[in-house]
Amino acid sequence: MAEPPAPESPALESPAPEAPAPQPPAPAYANVVDFRKVTKRFGNLTVIRDVTFSVPDLPDKGEFIAILGPSGCGKSTVLRLIAGLRPHFPASEGTVLVADRPVVRPGSDRSMVFQDYTSFDNRTVEDNVAFGLECRGVPAAERRARAREWIAKVGLDVKRDATKYPSELSGGMRQRVAIARTLILSPRIILMDEPFGALDPTTRLHMQELLVELWKEAQATVFFVTHSIEEAVYLGDRVYVFSTAPGTIIREMTIPPPTLPPKDMLRERAFIERVSEIRDVMDALASSTRAGD
Ligand SMILES: Nc1ncnc2c1ncn2[C@@H]1O[C@H](COP(=O)(O)OP(=O)(O)OP(=O)(O)O)[C@@H](O)[C@H]1O
Ligand SMILES: [Mg+2]
Fold first, then answer.
1. What pLDDT does residue 257 have?
2. Whose C-alpha lies nearest to ligand 1, atom 25?
3. Which one, out of 23, 86, 107, 195, has a CA that is 20 to 30 A from the CA of 160?
4. In ligand 1, which atom is closest to the CA atom of 1?
């Protein structure tokens, strides 16, 4: 899915000209995200049908939800409904709630990382990472300091990389910038649409490990779309498997947190069994589609 850069990013909408006023304490809510019989149609095409799930608000911790499913089953649609991004938003039927309230537009509580590299080509790494803070009116010295902190956190070298432009970076480095750009804004919900899909296998494993580390610190709820079952099982606290279009959840699996780095987890028996179980579900789905069921 080719996405234009930052204007699509919900966290960066409605730039505030001056520093935001202090926020009142966040109200308590039961669910971070709630889908109630959500159906989305484009004309005659039903993309998702009756999708229902709840992600509860866990104190001081967010859940990591991995979403798997065949191409075209509506995974990106689900993320964009949460983000409030048109034309997928609004739903044709049903209700999408974030923090127990219906989604009405994008907001700074939700932020999206796309598969395609979405940094500004004409901004340096530092200015890309600082972009959202700039929109929020954070003073230059503070945003520079925070951007540099995040550049280091995602494993880039401040001295070597902060002044580079995206065209001078590898794919893995660009996705590190995309992650820094998102997490610097402390969104409550992070929506990731195949963010590592274009990376080589080794870089991908490193990025998974980095993401787990950063996510634990961020205490955000993550929705992570992937075509890799191993990636879903490694990263997910919970995995949703979607059916072929019109997409609906056909399997939900709860997964204990990873105890080892990805390349070692891949060899663990329990891990292999979970991956095989999901692969069987997805293979059955593919063969029933081929048989025209
Ligand atoms: N703007 C649109 N107008 C019409 N149909 C659309 C639009 N956006 C998506 N669709 C259709 O909705 C369906 C689901 O699309 P979606 O992008 O959510 O699938 P996906 O599961 O993310 O697929 P992939 O794994 O290939 O990324 C597809 O059939 C797609 O063609
Ligand atoms: Mg998609």
1. 84
2. 71
3. 195
4. 27
Residue 18, classed as helix, strand or coil, is coil
How many angstroms separate the Cα of 277 from the Cα of each of 85, 232, 268, 281?
Answer: 33, 13, 14, 7
Write down the residue that tokens 């634990």 correspond to.
Answer: 216
Instruction: Reduce the secondary structure of 83-133 to three states and give it as a string.
Output: HCCCCCCCCCEEEEEECCEECCCCCCCEEEECCCCCCCCCCCHHHHHHHHH
**What's the rounded Cα separation, in Å, for the pair 202 and 90?**
38
Mean pLDDT over the full length of the chain: 87
CA–centroid distance, 72 to ligand 2, in Å, is 7
Please check whether residue 192 is in contact with residue 221, taking contact to mean a CB–CB distance below 8 angstroms.
Answer: no
Q: Report residue 99 CA to chain centroid gap.
A: 17
Q: What is the mean pLDDT of residues 35-42?
A: 97
Q: What residues form DSSP beta bridges with 96?
A: 35
Token output for 6: 């930052």
Q: Considering only residues 132 and 26, tell me which one the structure prediction assigns the higher pLDDT.
A: 132
Beta-carbon neighbour count of residue 246 at 10 Å?
Answer: 19
Q: What secondary structure letter does DSSP report for 31? A: E
- Residue 291 CB-density burial (10 A; 0-12 exposed, 13-18 middle, 19+ buried): exposed
pTM of the predicted protein model: 0.87
For residue 56, the CA-to-ligand 2 centroid distance in Å is 24
Looking at the predicted structure, is the pLDDT value of residue 242 above 50?
yes
